[in-house]
Amino acid sequence: MHLITAKAQLSPNVTRLDVEAPRIAKIRQPGQFVIVRKAEGCERIPLTIADADPEKGTITLVIQAVGKSTRELVALETGDTIRDISGPLGHPTEMISSGRAVCVGGGVGTAVVHPMAQGLFRNGAEVISVIGGRSKEWVIFEDELSRLGKVVVCTDDGSYGRKGFVTDATKEILDAGGVDIVYAVGPVPMMRAVANLTRPYGIKTIVSLNPVMVDGTGMCGGCRVDVGGSTLFACVDGPEFDGHLVDFDLLADRLGTYRDFEEKANQCCSDGECRIGRG
Fold first, then answer.
1. Which phi and psi angles does 38 have, rounded to 5°?
2. 2-89 placed in CATH 2.40.30.10
3. Is this structure's pTM higher than 0.85?
């Protein structure tokens, strides 16, 4: 059992939980993730390790409440426990040790960008973070990223930072020159747009993919993605890949595979007790 030591609301549907997981906190690296199971019989959910405190023995999980299982997780309070946390899983982020890196985060993807920026900063690279949200209340991790380098905030409605998409701000940075690598995490259309933007510049672009995962070992095949014409598994071969080689159309299609099931789960489980699979 993993004790929740702190909880914070980051945006209208994004919650931060600090959870005791001392062994994971000591060895996790940027880019790695865990698979969380709230209780016996619950769905297994992959979550990026957004931060860690080895001395306290805690890891930070950032959860976007979009379905039944994630809503159940964010309903937990400080002092509650999570049944299982497996990890760290996946390959660590490919880091540069000098030069300039641009980290682009959209929505909850900004929480995934944070450990990348931390690792780059510790390695000695210059970090510029470009983060976005629909409006000011949807912008997260600005303070944390500002400790690691310059931060450019974009909002769709212009209520905070500059109005427009993260790609607009990223293009200005690329045009200024001196960028060695770009990292992008967020919705599939955003990551695809960033990869398309950087391709003419010849700048390597790393994206973190979020297909459906179940076991985290490559056994189930649910997280398979097409990268450079080869079938790979995000849980064991990723979750980060060369954005210029990812088949984003296939990724978007696979993300919708269980949409109907999730809607049924939301309808059937509105009373807090899931009856799917039990008649």
1. -60, -45
2. yes
3. yes
